[in-house]
Backbone:
C-alpha cells in the first residue's frame, strides 16, 4: 500500500457531493428543505433544461445572517444541531451540514439573502467551491439561491444524467412530495418558464392533493386517523377506482420528512388487497408522527431511509387503520345501495287494482264466428332453416367460442418457386395453343410470370418447428400432435395468445395499427408525474396509434385511439402503457412499452376447455409454426412440450 495522503477540502467536497448531489432533483430537495426549515410560507422553484442549466429557489424565510454566509458553504456547517445528542431529537429536515458545501463544489452558486434583523441584504458567488465575491445586495426578506451549470467541472458525473425531460420529471416529483407534506406552504414550480404547479398553502391537505393529482383522485379518497402514546398516523387511502399499475402515487412521510419504506408500503397494500378485486397498487398518502428518539434518520446522506425502534407496532397501526376505513367504506356503500333500492321501489310502487269480473261478459261464440269468417286471411307459418338452426344447442355453443377458422398461407421455398417458374414457362398449355390467339397467350404468360416474380421477392417465412400431424385434443385444453416418433403437446390458450400478441406487436412496429376516431374525445386530467412521463414518451403513444392533443395545464384529449382485438377502452389502455413505462423505464423493446397488449391477447384467445375441431387445431398449429417465438406465451409460460419415443418407452419400462 502506498503512503497515506490527506485530501484537500475541494476534493473531499466533490467526493461527498457524489452522495448528496446525485442529480438536479437532489439539489432541489436539499434547497427546498432548507427553505422550509427557515420558516418560509411561500417557496418558488424555477428550473431550466431539467435543472442542468439553472435551479433557482426563492423563499420568504428568516434568511441567513451576513456574517454566516461564508460559513454556510463550509463542510458540516449547520444551524440545526450543536452536538451529537441533538441527533436523537431532530425536528428539522436538514442537520448534516453537507448540502451547500457539496452543491457549491460541483456548480456555480449565487446566494442572495436578507436576515430578518439586517437592514441590507447580502450576496455571495461561488464557483467550484471557491468564493469569487461577497457584497451587499438588494433583496426582500428571505433567500434567493441560483445553481447554474451543475457538474460542469465533473463531466464523468454529468454524462450519467438522464434526458432533460426525465430530469425535469424527477424535479416535479420531489417538489410534489414536499408540497404534500407542507400544505400550509404555498409552492410554485416553473419548468422552462412554464407553470407546472401552484399549491394554495391554506393548510388543507385535500386541497393540495387536488392541485397535484386532480379532481378524480381527490374525490375517491378515504381519510383515516389514529393516535397512540408513541405513534400517530393519519392520511388518505384511495378507493379501488383510482388504483394504478405502478407505485408512483404512493407517499410516506415520517415527522414531515418524505421517505421510502418497504414496511409501511407492504402494510398499506396488504390492507388494500383485502377489499380489492384488481391486481393494482393503491393510492395513499400516509403521515406518521413518532417521537424523534424512536426513529433514526441518520442512515444515508439523502435521509430518504429511516429505521424504527419498533417495526411491528408501525406495521400494525398502519395496517389496522387502513383496513378499518376500507371496511367501513364498503359497508356504507352496501347500505347506500340498499336504501337507494328501497327508494326506487317506493317511487315506482304499483297501486293495487281490483277488477269487477261481473262487468265483463265476453261473448266467446261471437269471437269464434269472427275468427272463422276471417280464416282465409290466415296463412300457414313455416319457420326458416336459420331459425331452426338457431335452436341447435351444439352450433350455438360453437358460436360462443372464438375459433381459428382460417389457415395461414405458407410462403413457398425458393427452390419450389424456381421449379414452378420453369414449369409455367414450359407448360404445354402455353406451347400448344388451341382456340386462343398468340397475343392473349403472351399476356397470360406475362401476368403469371409477374405474379411469380413478385412472390419470389416476398420474405420467406421460416417455420420454427416441423409440420405436425394432429392426433386430437386432450381434456379440451391441449392439442396432441406427432412428428417422427415425437409427441407434441400444445397449450391451445397459450399458443393462440402468443399468436395474437405477436400480430399486434408487428402491427405497431410496421405502423399498420387500426385507428378509430372517437365520436366524443376523452379528456384526461393527469398528475404532474403522469404528465411528465407522457411528454417524455410522446413518440411511444404516437407509434401505438394515439392522436393526443394538450388540453391546458396537465390535461390531454384522446382524439384517435388504436383499436385492439374487438374491444376498446382508450383510457385504460393509455394509463396501462403509461404505468408500464413508469415501472420499467422507457424500455428498449416493444414488449416492454406495450405490455398491456399481452393482457388483451390473453382475454381474446381461445380458452382451456374450448372444444376445437380438427381443422381449427391444424390451423392454430400452422400459424404458431411461423411466428417469431412460438415456444413461450407473452407471460413466459411454455406453449409446447414434447416427449420423445425413448422417454415414453422408458415410462412404460419397455427399455431400461
Residues:
Amino acid at each position: 500500500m502506498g503512503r497515506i495522503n490527506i485530501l484537500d477540502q475541494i476534493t473531499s467536497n466533490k467526493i461527498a457531493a457524489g452522495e448528496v448531489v446525485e442529480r438536479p432533483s437532489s439539489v432541489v430537495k436539499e434547497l427546498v428543505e432548507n427553505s422550509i426549515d427557515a420558516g418560509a410560507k411561500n417557496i418558488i422553484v424555477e428550473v431550466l433544461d431539467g435543472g442542468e442549466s439553472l435551479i433557482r429557489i426563492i423563499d420568504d424565510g428568516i434568511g441567513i445572517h451576513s456574517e454566516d454566509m461564508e460559513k454556510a458553504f463550509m463542510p458540516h456547517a449547520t444551524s440545526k444541531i450543536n452536538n451529537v445528542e441533538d441527533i436523537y431529537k431532530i425536528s428539522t429536515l436538514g442537520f448534516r451540514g453537507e448540502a451547500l458545501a457539496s452543491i457549491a463544489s460541483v456548480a456555480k452558486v449565487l446566494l442572495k439573502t436578507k436576515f430578518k434583523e439586517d437592514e441590507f441584504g447580502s450576496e455571495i458567488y461561488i464557483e467550484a467551491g471557491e468564493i469569487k465575491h461577497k457584497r451587499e445586495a438588494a433583496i426582500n426578506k428571505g433567500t434567493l439561491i441560483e445553481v447554474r451549470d451543475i457538474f460542469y467541472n465533473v463531466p464523468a458525473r454529468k454524462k450519467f444524467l438522464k434526458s432533460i425531460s426525465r430530469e425535469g420529471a424527477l424535479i416535479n416529483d420531489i417538489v410534489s412530495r414536499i408540497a404534500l407534506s407542507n400544505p400550509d406552504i404555498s409552492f410554485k414550480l416553473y419548468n422552462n418558464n412554464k407553470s407546472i404547479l401552484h399549491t394554495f398553502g391554506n393548510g388543507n391537505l385535500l386541497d393540495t392533493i387536488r392541485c397535484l393529482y386532480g379532481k378524480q383522485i381527490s374525490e375517491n379518497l378515504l381519510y383515516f386517523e389514529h393516535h397512540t402514546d408513541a405513534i400517530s398516523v393519519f392520511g388518505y387511502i384511495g378507493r379501488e377506482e383510482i388504483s394504478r399499475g405502478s407505485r408512483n402515487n404512493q407517499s410516506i412521510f415520517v415527522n414531515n420528512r418524505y421517505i421510502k419504506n418497504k414496511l409501511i408500503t407492504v402494510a398499506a397494500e396488504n390492507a388494500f388487497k383485502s377489499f380489492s378485486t384488481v391486481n393494482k397498487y393503491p393510492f395513499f398518502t400516509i403521515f406518521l408522527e413518532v417521537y424523534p428518539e424512536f426513529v433514526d434518520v441518520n442512515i444515508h446522506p439523502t435521509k430518504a431511509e429511516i429505521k424504527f425502534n419498533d417495526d411491528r407496532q408501525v406495521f400494525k397501526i398502519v395496517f389496522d387503520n387502513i383496513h378499518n376505513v376500507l371496511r367501513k367504506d364498503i359497508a356504507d356503500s352496501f347500505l347506500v345501495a340498499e336504501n337507494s333500492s328501497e327508494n326506487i321501489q317506493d317511487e315506482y310502487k304499483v297501486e293495487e287494482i281490483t277488477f269487477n269480473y261481473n262487468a265483463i261478459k265476453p261473448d266467446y261464440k261471437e269471437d269464434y264466428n269472427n275468427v272463422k269468417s276471417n280464416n282465409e286471411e290466415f296463412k300457414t307459418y313455416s319457420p326458416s332453416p336459420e331459425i331452426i338452426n338457431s335452436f341447435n344447442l351444439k352450433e350455438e355453443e360453437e358460436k360462443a367460442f372464438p375459433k381459428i377458422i382460417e389457415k395461414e398461407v405458407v410462403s413457398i421455398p425458393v427452390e419450389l418457386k424456381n421449379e414452378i417458374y420453369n414449369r409455367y414457362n414450359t407448360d404445354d398449355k402455353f406451347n400448344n395453343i388451341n382456340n386462343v390467339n398468340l397475343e392473349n397467350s403472351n399476356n397470360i404468360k406475362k401476368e403469371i410470370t409477374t405474379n411469380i416474380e413478385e412472390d419470389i421477392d416476398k420474405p420467406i417465412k421460416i417455420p420454427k418447428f416441423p409440420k405436425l400431424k394432429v392426433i386430437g385434443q386432450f381434456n379440451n385444453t391441449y392439442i396432441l400432435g406427432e412428428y417422427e416418433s415425437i409427441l407434441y403437446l400444445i397449450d391451445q390458450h397459450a399458443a393462440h395468445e402468443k399468436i395474437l400478441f405477436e400480430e399486434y406487436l408487428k402491427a405497431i412496429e410496421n405502423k399498420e395499427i387500426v385507428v378509430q376516431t372517437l365520436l366524443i374525445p376523452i379528456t384526461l386530467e393527469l398528475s404532474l408525474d403522469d404528465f411528465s412521463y407522457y411528454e417524455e414518451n410522446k413518440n411511444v403513444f404516437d407509434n401505438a396509434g394515439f392522436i393526443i392533443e394538450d388540453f391546458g395545464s396537465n390535461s390531454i384529449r384522446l382524439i384517435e385511439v388504436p383499436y385492439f382485438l374487438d374491444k376498446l377502452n382508450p383510457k385504460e389502455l393509455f394509463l396501462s402503457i403509461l404505468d408500464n413505462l413508469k415501472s420499467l423505464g422507457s424500455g428498449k423493446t416493444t414488449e416492454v412499452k406495450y405490455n398491456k397488449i399481452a393482457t388483451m391477447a390473453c382475454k381474446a384467445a381461445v380458452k382451456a376447455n374450448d372444444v376445437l375441431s380438427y381443422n381449427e387445431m391444424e390451423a392454430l398449429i400452422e400459424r404458431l409454426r411461423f411466428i417469431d417465438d412460438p415456444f413461450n406465451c407473452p407471460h413466459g409460460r411454455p406453449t409446447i412440450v414434447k416427449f420423445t419415443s425413448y422417454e415414453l418407452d422408458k415410462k412404460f419400462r419397455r427399455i431400461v
